[in-house]
Amino acid sequence: MRVYCAENYAAMSRRAANIISAQVITKPDSVLGLATGGTPVGAYQRLVECYKEGDLSFAEIRSVNLDEYYGLSPRHEQSYRYFMQSNLFDHIDIKPENTHVLNGLAKDPAEECAKYNQLIEDLGGIDLQLLGMGHNGHIAFNEPGDDFGLETHLVTLTERTIEANTRFFERKEDVPRQALTMGIKNIMRARRILMVVSGADKAEAVYKAFCGRVTKEVPASILQLHPDVTLVGDKEALSKLIEAGVAVCG
Ligand code: GLP
């Protein structure tokens, strides 16, 4: 695992965007696995700037998103499809038909999940998977205790995740209780993983994920077994990892 420690959120975002840009430049038809949440927003902004400055094109890029709230329409402002459109897709030259987000309104969630697994396979697998991490160590919406062997599935969100995501909704009751998510198995099959973390409130989760035991109780801990992980964080989020003596680059 490579760990990059950035001075602050802006520097972390630039570093993450540089890594994604390098992937896009070296393989213009890459399959990018994309993530939502507050943490990657700065990296997406930087990618949009690079595109506008003429340094990057997404014309041949295909994307698959990690997850979607179950029950939200793609037009709902808090849906992850809406998030991706407004933070990235609407501002770059990616072809709409090449962007894929699970359908939160699917009548048959099991069928939607099976279709998504097939789609990822048909695309040839994920070249670079971007990830954030929840305070309880969740990745995508794989919550503590979920089986590591699962592919895309319907999940019931934990109280802690609902609490954490309440900030994006008017009221806690508005946060969907279920989501469709890629499973750990899909994520672990990605050829490269890029995780972004920011803020002191993530330090404990980051420490447990990368210095603790590999356990279902901390879903991100499985990444210790992936051969190509890059962790980019600001110094607050990485503080406990650094205290524990994990080597970091610039
Ligand atoms: C949500 C998403 C995750 C994301 C997590 C952390 O639960 N499903 O993919 O990593 O939030 O979000 P944030 O970056 O806002 O802390």
UniProtKB/TrEMBL annotation:
Which Pfam families does this one have? Answer: Glucosamine_iso
Active site, per annotation: D67 (proton acceptor), N136 (for ring-opening step), H138 (proton acceptor), E143 (for ring-opening step)
Q: Which residues form the Glucosamine/galactosamine-6-phosphate isomerase domain?
A: 10-224
- EC number(s) per entry: 3.5.99.6
The record lists the catalysed reaction(s) as: alpha-D-glucosamine 6-phosphate + H2O = beta-D-fructose 6-phosphate + NH4(+)
Task: Please provide the record's keywords in A-Z order.
Answer: Carbohydrate metabolism, Hydrolase
Pathway given for this chain reads:
Amino-sugar metabolism; N-acetylneuraminate degradation; D-fructose 6-phosphate from N-acetylneuraminate: step 5/5
Keyword Hydrolase assigned: yes
* Molecular function GO labels: glucosamine-6-phosphate deaminase activity; identical protein binding
Q: Which PANTHER family does UniProt cross-reference here?
A: GLUCOSAMINE-6-PHOSPHATE ISOMERASE
**Annotated family:** Belongs to the glucosamine/galactosamine-6-phosphate isomerase family. NagB subfamily.
Q: What is this protein called?
A: Glucosamine-6-phosphate deaminase
- Give the originating organism: Candidatus Flavonifractor merdipullorum
Which gene does this sequence derive from?
nagB
